[in-house]
Amino acid sequence: MEKKSEGTLAILLLALIQGVLASGAVEIKPSINPVVVGNSVTLSLSPSKILKSASWAVGESLILNWLGDQQAGVPSYNGRASVNVLTGALTLSSVKVADSGLYTVQSSDPQLKASASITVLEPISNVALRANQTTLMEFSSSAVATCSVSSGSSISFLWMNGSAEVKASGRVQLTDGGSTLTMVNVTRYDRGPFSCRAFNLISNGSSDPVTFTISYGPDNMALKINGNNTTSFPIGSNLTVLCSAQSSPPARLQWAFRGEPVNTTGPLLELLSFGKDQSGPYSCLAFNNHTNMTSNITAHIMIAEPFSGSQQQAVNVMLLPLLLLVGFLVILPDAGGSFSP
Known about the structure:
This protein is α+β, with helices and mostly antiparallel strands. The chain has helices spanning 2-25, 309-337, and strands at residues 27-30, 35-36, 41-46, 53-58, 61-67, 70-73, 81-83, 90-92, 101-109, 111-118, 120-121, 128-131, 135-137, 143-148, 156-161, 164-165, 172-175, 180-183, 194-199, 204-206, 213-225, 232-233, 239-248, 252-257, 260-265, 268-271, 280-288, 293-303. Strands 6-5-4-9-10 form a 5-stranded antiparallel beta sheet.
């Protein structure tokens, strides 16, 4: 009796070991993965096996089983799932996103079990970008833009500012799975154009760009006189003073002389036949009626006084000793050369 029990136990252990080995030696290979919604996919065994009795399931849900050449499927898979009883390959047609999951084949003759995952994806279509508002104020407004699609599954989003990728930072937030971009306290450099790209493993699409209008300034003012930074000119000169300011929309420019407005607006001030009575501080005042901000810059333009007669005489007196010294040094070599030992 003991020998018979030992023999039975050995047979069972051998059968178990063969089953484990068989399970480890078999893989499931999808014909395509990921799979596009509406397409078909076949899950084949590699190497191929003849399974006399087996079943297919996804997760914990049975799809079908078969015995010999007879197969039976659950109602929800009628017309969509079939098995090749000779090879054990399962074919699913008209797949849905819900068909994604872990597929397992299990057989009792021969004994094996193998699994593989497939992902079913819906292609992306009609990527669109919508902004809550496009007219903003620098340092006080926030911009919110949302990327949406008409269809698609397992979607990731990428935001672009021109050719540069937008990443989350102190002022920039990406929420709702990356589909919403929020920029707090926008600056003039947040104009864009912004676009979003939606993608999954089988498709992608990009939105049309959106550009924000951001009011800012005036600031960073500059004055150029006759194209340079010189502020001293000979009497009678014709001067062109150009004022610039960074501002959006462009700032209104008003000129003032010695603190009093002059009858000139715009970036250009012309001073013809510049005289002594025109010397003094010239100011350019900038105003932005969208931001209600002002800024100004002042240059002191003066007459370059020529030397007077007494000044010229003083210069000549100062130069005379220097000229005598230079002459003496020039003559000295010649004089030394006239001596002989």
